Every structure is written in C-alpha cells, then in structure tokens.
Amino acid sequence: MMQRQMKLEQSVFVKASQVELYDSVSEVRAMGKYSPECRVVLGPRGSVAAGRSFIGLNRKGPFVWFTWCRVVHAEPSERFTFDVYAFGLPVARWGYRFTPEADGTRVTESWEDLRTGRGARVTELLGLIFTGTPAERRAGLNRADMRTTLLRLKHAVER
Question: pLDDT 10s per residue in the chain (159 long)?
C-alpha cells in the first residue's frame, strides 16, 4: 500500500505585484477561471475577508460535488487560506503565499489533507463517492491540478 501524502506545495514565478496576485486569488468567485476542478463559486464579491464563507461547485469527469469553505487567513499581499468542508466535516486546507522576487512575485499554492482523527473515514468515503478519487491518490491529482491552476493564474495576470 502506498504512503498517503498529507501536504503538498507548488509554486510559480509571475511578473506581477503581490497586491495584484493576492487580489486575483482572494476574489474567490473567479476561482473557476483558474482551477481545473472548481467550476463556480457562490459567495461574496471582491476580496474575501477572514471568517467569511463560500460554496464551491466542483467537477472532475462525470463526478460533480459541492464544498463549503471558510477563509482562515486573508492577509493582503501575504497569504490567503481557506478550509474546505463536506457535510460539516473537515476535508482540506488550501492556501496561497506571495513572496516578492526581483521583478515579480513567487506564488506558492499549498494543500493539506485535513481528513484525520474523528470523521476521517467518513470524509474519505465521501471523497471517493463524490470525486471518484481515493484518499491515497488525492495528493497526486492535486499536484497536477495545482500546476494547472498556477499557470492559468500566471497567464491571466501577466496578460
């Protein structure tokens, strides 16, 4: 049985300011433009503050599901992080960090599997049923999707 990876990071250099990139990511309603899984976000307009919630409608192949999300860090130009829940149970933490570099910004996207402790088996089963992806394969799938997300963000902002 393969070792399950619980955390993951990917990054890309973008010729843009931290402010511009933070604004692009914290405008959660635009996430469907970048993410290969997220199709639509229902939630507040503009940059979303810590403590605010939104709903993500997602699709991967024939699988369609929704998640409830809550922003845990909204530090302009620094980081934007949100937790994902399914039926009230913790699933994952997604985040973005913005680090200045010579003539732009390094954007780092992170993911942490929160399906641990009480309720973990239930959320793993829900993940398999709704997304078609077993918990052991989620990190590998997210690695590829994160790369796509970051490249789409880079392309959109650098235009």
Answer: 557 899 999 999 999 999 999 999 999 999 999 999 999 999 999 999 999 999 999 999 999 999 999 999 999 999 999 999 999 999 999 999 999 999 999 999 999 999 998 889 999 999 999 999 999 999 999 999 999 999 999 999 998
Structure token digits, residue 29: 């309603």
Look up tokens 């235009």; give the residue.
Answer: 159
Give the C-alpha separation, 153 to 159, whole Å.
10
Alpha carbons 8 and 26: distance in angstroms, whole number: 20
Sheet of strand 53-60, all strands in order from the earlier edge strand to the far edge: 7-14, 104-113, 89-101, 79-86, 63-75, 53-60, 38-42
Residues 102 and 51: their CA atoms lie apart, in Å, by 33
Which tokens is 86 given? 């399914």
